[in-house]
Protein backbone atom coordinates (compact mmCIF):
# COMPACT_ATOMS: atom_id res chain seq x y z
CA UNK A 1 0.00 0.00 0.00
CA UNK A 2 0.85 3.67 0.10
CA UNK A 3 2.51 3.51 3.51
CA UNK A 4 4.72 0.57 2.55
CA UNK A 5 5.75 2.46 -0.59
CA UNK A 6 6.47 5.60 1.46
CA UNK A 7 8.69 3.69 3.89
CA UNK A 8 10.55 1.91 1.10
CA UNK A 9 11.12 5.14 -0.83
CA UNK A 10 12.25 7.11 2.23
CA UNK A 11 14.71 4.37 3.17
CA UNK A 12 16.05 4.41 -0.38
CA UNK A 13 16.51 8.18 -0.25
CA UNK A 14 18.48 8.00 3.02
CA UNK A 15 21.73 6.64 1.64
CA UNK A 16 23.17 6.36 5.14
CA UNK A 17 20.95 3.30 5.61
CA UNK A 18 22.68 1.48 2.73
CA UNK A 19 25.98 1.17 4.61
CA UNK A 20 27.68 -2.10 5.53
CA UNK A 21 30.49 -2.31 8.09
CA UNK A 22 33.35 -4.78 8.24
CA UNK A 23 36.25 -5.11 10.65
CA UNK A 24 39.85 -5.99 10.02
CA UNK A 25 41.60 -6.31 13.35
CA UNK A 26 41.06 -2.99 15.08
CA UNK A 27 40.02 -1.23 11.88
CA UNK A 28 36.39 -0.71 10.92
CA UNK A 29 35.55 -0.20 7.25
CA UNK A 30 32.40 1.36 5.85
CA UNK A 31 31.03 0.41 2.44
CA UNK A 32 28.30 2.65 1.09
CA UNK A 33 25.58 1.40 -1.23
CA UNK A 34 26.16 -2.17 -0.06
CA UNK A 35 22.67 -2.78 1.34
CA UNK A 36 19.57 -2.53 -0.83
CA UNK A 37 16.68 -0.60 0.74
CA UNK A 38 13.97 -2.81 2.14
CA UNK A 39 10.37 -2.11 2.92
CA UNK A 40 8.55 -3.07 6.07
CA UNK A 41 7.60 -6.60 7.05
CA UNK A 42 3.86 -7.07 7.44
CA UNK A 43 2.46 -8.80 10.54
CA UNK A 44 -1.30 -9.25 10.91
CA UNK A 45 -1.98 -9.66 14.63
CA UNK A 46 -5.76 -9.20 14.53
CA UNK A 47 -6.44 -12.80 15.55
CA UNK A 48 -4.39 -12.54 18.77
CA UNK A 49 -6.32 -12.36 22.06
CA UNK A 50 -4.94 -8.85 22.60
CA UNK A 51 -3.46 -7.61 19.31
CA UNK A 52 -2.06 -4.39 20.75
CA UNK A 53 -0.32 -6.14 23.64
CA UNK A 54 0.98 -8.78 21.22
CA UNK A 55 2.41 -6.02 19.01
CA UNK A 56 4.10 -4.35 21.98
CA UNK A 57 5.60 -7.68 23.06
CA UNK A 58 6.84 -8.34 19.51
CA UNK A 59 8.46 -4.90 19.36
CA UNK A 60 10.09 -5.30 22.76
CA UNK A 61 11.51 -8.70 21.85
CA UNK A 62 12.80 -7.39 18.53
CA UNK A 63 14.26 -4.26 20.15
CA UNK A 64 16.11 -6.29 22.77
CA UNK A 65 17.75 -8.62 20.23
CA UNK A 66 21.41 -7.61 19.75
CA UNK A 67 22.46 -6.44 16.30
CA UNK A 68 25.63 -7.83 14.75
CA UNK A 69 27.23 -4.81 13.12
CA UNK A 70 28.90 -6.90 10.41
CA UNK A 71 26.07 -9.31 9.59
CA UNK A 72 23.15 -6.97 10.18
CA UNK A 73 20.56 -6.12 9.40
CA UNK A 74 21.32 -2.71 10.87
CA UNK A 75 17.73 -1.55 10.45
CA UNK A 76 14.35 -3.20 10.35
CA UNK A 77 10.83 -1.97 9.63
CA UNK A 78 7.54 -3.67 10.33
CA UNK A 79 3.88 -2.80 10.01
CA UNK A 80 1.90 -4.50 12.75
CA UNK A 81 -1.81 -4.74 12.05
CA UNK A 82 -3.74 -4.72 15.32
CA UNK A 83 -7.22 -3.92 14.00
CA UNK A 84 -9.15 -3.47 10.79
CA UNK A 85 -8.16 0.21 10.70
CA UNK A 86 -5.22 0.20 13.14
CA UNK A 87 -1.57 -0.32 12.30
CA UNK A 88 1.65 0.32 14.19
CA UNK A 89 4.87 1.18 12.39
CA UNK A 90 7.97 -0.27 13.99
CA UNK A 91 11.37 1.05 12.96
CA UNK A 92 14.60 -0.09 14.54
CA UNK A 93 17.95 1.21 13.42
CA UNK A 94 21.42 0.83 14.88
CA UNK A 95 22.71 4.14 16.23
CA UNK A 96 25.74 3.85 13.94
CA UNK A 97 23.36 4.63 11.05
CA UNK A 98 20.87 7.09 12.57
CA UNK A 99 20.78 9.23 15.67
CA UNK A 100 17.59 10.69 17.17
CA UNK A 101 17.63 13.59 14.71
CA UNK A 102 18.02 11.17 11.80
CA UNK A 103 15.10 9.08 13.09
CA UNK A 104 12.93 12.18 13.22
CA UNK A 105 13.94 13.23 9.70
CA UNK A 106 13.19 9.76 8.34
CA UNK A 107 9.78 9.67 10.05
CA UNK A 108 8.98 13.14 8.70
CA UNK A 109 9.90 12.04 5.18
CA UNK A 110 7.75 8.90 5.45
CA UNK A 111 4.81 11.03 6.61
CA UNK A 112 5.40 13.51 3.78
CA UNK A 113 5.55 10.78 1.14
CA UNK A 114 2.48 9.01 2.53
CA UNK A 115 0.45 12.24 2.72
CA UNK A 116 1.28 13.10 -0.88
CA UNK A 117 0.44 9.56 -2.03
CA UNK A 118 -2.96 9.76 -0.31
CA UNK A 119 -3.62 13.19 -1.84
CA UNK A 120 -2.45 12.08 -5.29
CA UNK A 121 0.16 14.83 -5.45
CA UNK A 122 3.90 14.83 -6.10
CA UNK A 123 6.08 15.12 -3.00
CA UNK A 124 9.00 17.53 -2.94
CA UNK A 125 12.50 16.23 -3.50
CA UNK A 126 14.11 14.75 -0.40
CA UNK A 127 16.00 17.17 1.81
CA UNK A 128 18.40 14.54 3.17
CA UNK A 129 22.01 15.25 2.48
CA UNK A 130 24.17 12.44 1.17
CA UNK A 131 26.94 10.63 2.97
CA UNK A 132 29.37 12.23 0.54
CA UNK A 133 28.08 15.68 1.59
CA UNK A 134 28.57 14.81 5.26
CA UNK A 135 32.13 13.58 4.70
CA UNK A 136 33.03 16.67 2.67
CA UNK A 137 31.57 18.93 5.40
CA UNK A 138 33.53 17.12 8.09
Q: Topology of this structure?
A:
Elements: H1 2-13, E1 20-24, E2 27-31, E3 41-44, H2 51-64, E4 75-83, E5 86-93, H3 100-119, H4 131-137
Helix pairs in contact: 1-3
What are the salient characteristics of this protein?
138 residues, alpha+beta, Chloramphenicol Acetyltransferase, 3-stranded mixed β-sheet, 38% helix
Summarize the structure.
The chain is of the alpha+beta class and 138 residues long. It is built from 4 helices and 5 strands, in the order αβββαββαα.
For the biggest sheet, the summary is: 3 strands, mixed
Proportion of strand residues: 15-25%
Helical residues, percent? 25-40%
> What's the level 1 CATH class?
Alpha Beta
Describe it.
The chain is flat, with a radius of gyration of 17 Å. It is an alpha+beta fold. It has a single domain, classed as 2-Layer Sandwich (Chloramphenicol Acetyltransferase), CATH 3.30.559.10. Strand 1 and strand 2 form a beta hairpin.
Amino acid sequence: GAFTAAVTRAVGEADGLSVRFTTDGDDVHQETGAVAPSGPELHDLRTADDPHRTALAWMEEERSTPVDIERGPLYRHALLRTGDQRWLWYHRCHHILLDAYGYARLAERVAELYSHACAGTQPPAPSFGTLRDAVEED
